[in-house]
Amino acid sequence: MAAYQLLIIGGGLSGIAAGIRAARFGLKTLILEQHNLPGGLNSYYLRQGRLLETGLHAMTNFAPPGAKQAPLNRLFRQLRLSRKHLEVHEQIGSEIRFGGRSLYFTNDIAVLEEAIAREFPEAIDRFRLLRQTIAAYDPFAAVPWRSTRGFLAEHLRHPLLIDMLLLPLMIYGNAEEHDMDLGQFVIMFRAVFEEGFFRPGGTMRDFLDLLVRQFREFGGELRYRSPVAAVETDGDRVVGVRLENGEQLTAETVLSTAGMPETMRLAAWEGDRVQYAGRMSFMETISFVPRASMASLGPARTIIFYHRGPRLAYRRPDDFLDPSWGVICFPDNFSGLVPEESTQIRVTNAASYPLWKNLAAAAYGPAKERWSRAAIAASEEIIGNYHSSIVYQDSFTPVTIERFTRKAQGAVYGSGIKVRDGVTPWGNLFIAGTDQGYLGIVGAMLSGITIVNQHVLR
Length: 458
Hints:
The chain has 458 residues and is an alpha/beta fold. The protein is built from 13 helices and 18 strands.
């Protein structure tokens, strides 16, 4: 029976970052990943010789190397990685299109201020005061849940502007429907608007290779195709895990990044798992088109957040997919990237997990084709026609997300109820990742690091 000081369930970004941090300080650490690739929600797969990324539209929290207190640079210091290891490409510029209005923004928030001054001149002074209030707010303070909508109504007093600002922040990191916790809003506002979007050089595979290599250089072990069947407990302590192949592993501490519902199931944790199941999941449709055809799609944008209804409807849809709002991402539209012969257009829309889950096997493929066409058609209303230029197209649904990540109901951002301290009823079992409350790629990695710092290395 193999023994470890730290055993991590899940080889996503949170788990790998936690593993690097622990292994760096000499802890015998093992990461168990059920899939044959690392990354979890932010991974990749190959189809017909093409590499398709999952999760990564763009990383948030951009910061120049000299900004020592910025989350991105704190992350790299904790992992003992130099920024020289990370080639970065900032966004060209993104746009929020909502009900015929538009806000353009870049990694310089002055550009967003100028857009608000043009579109909503009556609200620009209140927006500037809002930024000051956000700068002074501590999103990690132990305070009760507070409505972001109520907060913004008090400070901005402009429903359409509020919806436009909430759209990208909710899409990029909100597990709740309709509203979001104020602390989460502050985190996402800083990450998206104050700091901004970028992507690492190369592909998601290259970024993951960098992290896995660092973990292994510190002596960490990573096992693929090793799904956990149960977390073994003895009284108020966890003693290890049992794998689905029957193998038992002992550990002084176990860290789960599989989300609250799955962790509760594995540990036979008494409680209502349903209350922790998030409702927000998505379907993504990825299309490859010739680079030459992009010229007909208007000005270059990195990401377009769009909404065609009068008020923001951030919720699980009643149908399989809601194409009336979503994200259109152009992964090649970052500064300094060398154009490829073909480029991607990625369209992401809210999707209903129960409807996809209950489909008969024979109906699943046709449903994917139908709703992929609907997603493409909706995006064409925003950027122009490109379906006739598609040379390859693929999509994945909430069922795919659940299968490969074990996130209950394919909930990308996990539960609306966050366990911010990562503590469970067992003194040596901890939660990290989306259900701890840190979201986005940088946030997920900082989550794993924070739990190791606070509960393992101490």
